[in-house]
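Morning, I've got a small favour to ask if you have a moment. You're getting the sequence in one-letter code plus the fold written as tokens. Thanks so much in advance, here it is:

===
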Amino acid sequence: KMDDDDDDIPQLSSHTLAALQEFYLEQQQREGMKTSQGFNQYSIGSIEEDWQLSQFWYSDETASCLAKEAVLAAGKGGRIACISAPSVYQKLKEQDGEDFSVCILEYDRRFSVYGEEFIFYDYNQPLDLPETLLPHTFDIVMADPPYLSEECLRKTAETIKYLTKGKILLCTGAVMEEQAAKHLGVKICKFIPKHSRNLANEFRCYTNYASGLD
């Protein structure tokens, strides 16, 4: 007899169902924004976070602050590299016309919509980079390693040191302070970066130069 089979189908709680409906509604609204006039492909959130890739975008205020710091540190006509920090790259691109150039090194190929400035990057192969990325040609490298692990930081540090002329701006967890000093010679700043969604781990900024973040 099959009458009771429906009882075995898992039911979503009303809370979960409401959250799911809200998520789909937000998604529809975002899709609607993308097709409407005036959509900015560089706005934070235009490419959504993928938690499976450990992606957490900065708040608008934090991205603006870090982008401003990168521009000041790079100087007039400076070159900026953003490693695994797409929301800072997006904020820099919103300043179109400013006297600097920027590229984004990122594992997520969705960011290839940004054309030649996108460089596929896997921290597991830290020096597997295009020949066009010559060593020590960036005035500042801004990086946010995707995972709070010594291995991830150490390998990302290889890329940072290869690319930078000297200046480094790093964002990672407060728990990585000792490792960040060991691998990159950076010190913690007073500025505390925030994310558009709250993270469980305390997050901090680090630099190896006198910055405007203190």
Q: What stands out?
A: The chain has one domain: 51-207. The two ends are 72 Å apart (CA to CA). The mean pLDDT is 83. The chain is about 30% helix and 20% strand.
